[in-house]
Amino acid sequence: MGETAKKAILAVSFGTSHSDTRKVTIDAIEEDLKAAFEDCSLYRAWTSKMILARLEKRDGIHYDNVKEAMEHMLKDGITDVIVQPTHVMNGVENDLMKEDVLTYAGQFQSVTFGTPLLTTEEDNELVVKAIAEAFPVIEDKETALVLMGHGTEHYANAVYAALDYRFKDMGHENVIVGTVEGYPEISQVLKQLEKCGPQKVVIAPLMIVAGDHAKNDMAGDEPDSWKTIISQKGYEVQTVLKGLGEYESIRHIFVEHAKAAK
């Protein structure tokens, strides 16, 4: 008989340099994965080179990138790995992460991948329900909820428009999805706000962590922040600095994706 299997979950995140949001988002997702997979050791990898370098320089903290985490698990004698990304979608970061993992796959008995948050139509529906539950204010037709996603040049960016459509299809006409670096952008968000004509607008991040984009591009006081741009159109604006990872129902989706990979 071969050696006893040693199983692990590798939680892969983009990362954040803001420890306040990390504790309540990335750490919380990892804790939920740990609790759901008691027979697995938990390892962490972050994919943003910029964030990893910043943390090392500023705080003297080193987190593994994907290749380092794979090396780490090999050294520890791990035989079977479930890789669970905490990414929102199957974009560039997820593609690169898979490439890195697969260069090591032959050295393990098994390597399987869980999927990002928005992968299937069912995922979209679950995310709509989770957000509607977290923001009961959307029942008030005088209030619109604007969700700021990251956006990407990758074709997976289409998921944002699909999610926007899904909100409306499920009866939430006053929920609008936009992105900082993709389509729909702030100009499309403003067009939609004009259509639904609310008095008040709540803006929240459609990102796992409430980091730089949420604190600056979304809720900052600069002239080009979404808060400023939307306020200037005469709406009363409230910003919610809460990453998706803070919602238990969203974390549950990641856990289910890891279970499906198992």
UniProtKB/TrEMBL annotation:
A biological-process GO annotation: anaerobic cobalamin biosynthetic process
CDD domains on file: CbiK_C
Domain of life: Bacteria
Sites where the protein binds Co(2+): H150, E181, H213
Active site annotation, chain numbering: H150 (proton acceptor)
InterPro entries: Anaerobic_Co-chelatase, Sirohydro_Cobaltochel/CbiX
Protein name: Sirohydrochlorin cobaltochelatase
